[in-house]
Amino acid sequence: MFHGSMVALVTPMTMDGSIDDEALARLIEFHISEGTDAIVAVGTTGESATLDMDEHCEVIARVVKLVAGRIPVIAGTGANSTSEAIELTRCALNGGADASLLVTPYYNKPTQEGLYRHYRAVAEAVPMPQILYNVPGRTAVDMLPDTVVRLADISNIVGIKEATGSLDRAREIIHRCGDRMSVYGGDDATAMGLMLAGGRGVISVTANVAPRAMHEMSMAACRGDEVTAAAVNAPLEALHRALFLESNPIPVKWALFAMGLIQEGIRLPLTALSEQYHEAVRAALKQAGIPLAGEIAHV
């Protein structure tokens, strides 16, 4: 249903932290022109944690309107309250999104049974395609393969974003669930390997700044062309690392600012990228062939 390079889109903001609609429209056109296969709106990279409910729903609807059916839109609708996750997922459905992406409930650390019941409740309440999202490094809860296998039996749970960074974990889920749900990379550094192992794509931070290359790498990896995928991915490897020198989305928002695509706006408790990391991110962008603001080059 969904495949390839799916950008975990930043939510551009002005310097006072308000949402920058003009920059959002610019980013959407950038991604469509550069071959991005789907847009994920208001996920972790989109600062979902600091958008209020109204803003969250408004950004989803705005992205859907701007995309205008040209590529799929997947809405981040996860929450650590099941009732809130249901409400956000309904907003996504009503706003016209093609699917929702639901991170495991964070902070309250549910059991595996609690995770199963949470996702089942959202799937039963909102009739739209839903993608699980496991990222224990941020949520402090790890959804184990046995739980994923149980959830794969629910018809509108169509995939999982596997962001543990473990290829062994990804291979196990693909082996056990690959005929019932799609498995997507959620860690750019290991995404190529996951797709070569049978994954259907990646939900990518790097795609914010290198959409064409991530699309080309993903297409090659998904068709099993390891040589081409590795050749495209090699110049991106430093970028995969640099965009996590501080908590996501701090580095990627600075990178987009350096490219002249957005302002530096970000919401507390996140802050702008520390100056000590500017050169590392700038160097990684240049290694990937990405021009900075004021430079004449072709991405």
From TrEMBL:
Pyruvate binds at T45, I203. The keyword Cytoplasm applies. One of its GO terms (biological process) is lysine biosynthetic process via diaminopimelate. GO terms for cellular component: cytosol. SMART domains: DHDPS. The record marks A49, N80, E84, Y106 as: L-lysine inhibitor binding. One of its GO terms (molecular function) is 4-hydroxy-tetrahydrodipicolinate synthase activity. The active site is at Y133 (proton donor/acceptor), K161 (schiff-base intermediate with substrate). SUPFAM superfamilies: Aldolase (SSF51569). It comes from the Bacteria. Gene3D superfamilies: Aldolase class I. CDD domains: DHDPS. Keywords: Amino-acid biosynthesis, Cytoplasm, Diaminopimelate biosynthesis, Lyase, Lysine biosynthesis, Schiff base. InterPro entries: Aldolase_TIM (IPR013785), DapA (IPR005263), DapA-like (IPR002220), Schiff_base-form_aldolases_AS (IPR020625), Schiff_base-form_aldolases_CS (IPR020624). It catalyses: L-aspartate 4-semialdehyde + pyruvate = (2S,4S)-4-hydroxy-2,3,4,5-tetrahydrodipicolinate + H2O + H(+). Its EC number is 4.3.3.7. It is found in: Cytoplasm. Pathway: Amino-acid biosynthesis; L-lysine biosynthesis via DAP pathway; (S)-tetrahydrodipicolinate from L-aspartate: step 3/4. The record marks T44, Y107 as: Part of a proton relay during catalysis. Belongs to the DapA family. PANTHER family: 4-HYDROXY-2-OXOGLUTARATE ALDOLASE, MITOCHONDRIAL, DIHYDRODIPICOLINATE SYNTHASE. Homotetramer; dimer of dimers. Catalyzes the condensation of (S)-aspartate-beta-semialdehyde [(S)-ASA] and pyruvate to 4-hydroxy-tetrahydrodipicolinate (HTPA). This is 4-hydroxy-tetrahydrodipicolinate synthase. It comes from Acidihalobacter prosperus.
